[in-house]
Amino acid sequence: MTPDPRRIDWRALTDAAREAMSQAYAPYSGYPVGVAGLVDDGRVVVGCNVENASYGVGLCAECGLVSSLHATGGGQLVAVVCVDGDGNVLMPCGRCRQLLFEHGGPDMQISLAGGIKTMDELLPDAFGPAALAAFGSAHSPGQAQQETHSDG
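RESULT FIELD:
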């Protein structure tokens, strides 16, 4: 079910993302990022980016958000706001869009500079758990044995 964007307190969510951004550890890029997400049970979870001297192991803010989601009881994200160091709404990177899709689904809403969009609009034809399930059921060990025996 897609929540009505008029019933989501986008200002409070943006404020929570800005507060999280103020805790970011970004000594190398100087580009702090914060994110806040509304969970289907009403909780708000947050995350910030955490860089590392070995650049490839830095964590995006959305990684922290998803970790916080699960550390505080799980659930599904229904609305997300990501902000940059100036507190402006920010488009998540491609990797993070995939994380958000996995933990919010196609109906999750995200605030962007151009307005509110669903993850389905942001990441059409996304790869997710349903794709793995469909592949797994079509290629289960029992299925492969039946195909082998029916050919010969």
